[in-house]
Amino acid sequence: GDSVTQMEGPVTLSEEAFLTINCTYTATGYPSLFWYVQYPGEGLQLLLKATKADDKGSNKGFEATYRKETTSFHLEKGSVQVSDSAVYFCAFNNAGNMLTFGGGTRLMVKP
Amino acid sequence: DSGVTQTPKHLITATGQRVTLRCSPRSGDLSVYWYQQSLDQGLQFLIQYYNGEERAKGNILERFSAQQFPDLHSELNLSSLELGDSALYFCASSVGSTYNEQFFGPGTRLTVL
Asked: What is the pLDDT of residues B58-96, one digit of tens each?
């Protein structure tokens, strides 16, 4: 069935390091892909999205490219900050209604 | 701030009880979604309402029910509560019924003792 697999955390980085969080999906058809971020004690915020193959979503220095051939949507940032510490969720919308989420990856950035 | 509001923020209750969680969508949004976030199951879609009608159903237990009112706010009713129902319950809203961005509320943390 439909599913999202993302790397388990926690991912611990020093400030200004390069970030990659891997995400692959299993879905029929052509889903829309999303990254959501959850800061401590808060709800989910949409970070970026891509709706078709080769689209690149970007926001706040984060980027992810919709790779249909590898069914992947890896999240990257060139230089992380302490304020980026949060849990990141990869998700897709295939059936038109529900979002299917990965398990989340906790990112910890140390000064 | 997403514009989606949820009340209460925290809820502590006992097994066997019934609770109601409330959600107000963003202004102009017609769809409301409910999700459950638990340690063992992760984030799971429960149910969607669009303009007052049930539109999609996910892994929602029979003990749970929801509705959307004419003013578009929604309520999620959880009954005969069990310890395993302890979780964060999120509401999200979107403009349309399909393939739209969903904006999430801050969640209601339910603890069943």
From this structure: 989 999 999 999 999 999 999 999 999 999 999 999 988
pLDDT (tens digit per residue) in A40-93? 888 899 999 999 899 999 999 999 999 999 999 999 999 999 999 999 999 998
Percentage of residues in chain A having pLDDT higher than 70: 99
The verdict on A57 touching B (C-beta cutoff 8 Å) is no
Three-class secondary structure of residue B85 per DSSP: helix
Mutate to test the interface with A, among B40, B51, B104 (most CBs of A within 10 A): B104
What is d(CA A2, CA A8) in angstroms, rounded to the nearest whole number?
A: 19
Contact B99 A98 (CB under 8 A): no
Pairing of β A23-26 and β A3-6? antiparallel
Q: How confident is the model at residue B41 (pLDDT cuts 50, 70, 90)?
A: confident
B51 and B29 in contact (C-beta within 8 Å)? no
Is the dihedral angle over the CA atoms B21, B22, B26, B32 positive or is it negative?
Answer: positive
Interface contact flag, B43 A104, Cβ < 8 Å: yes
> Which of A32, A46, A91 is opposite residue B99, by nearest beta carbon?
A32
Of residues A43, A96, A100, nearest to B104 (C-beta): A43
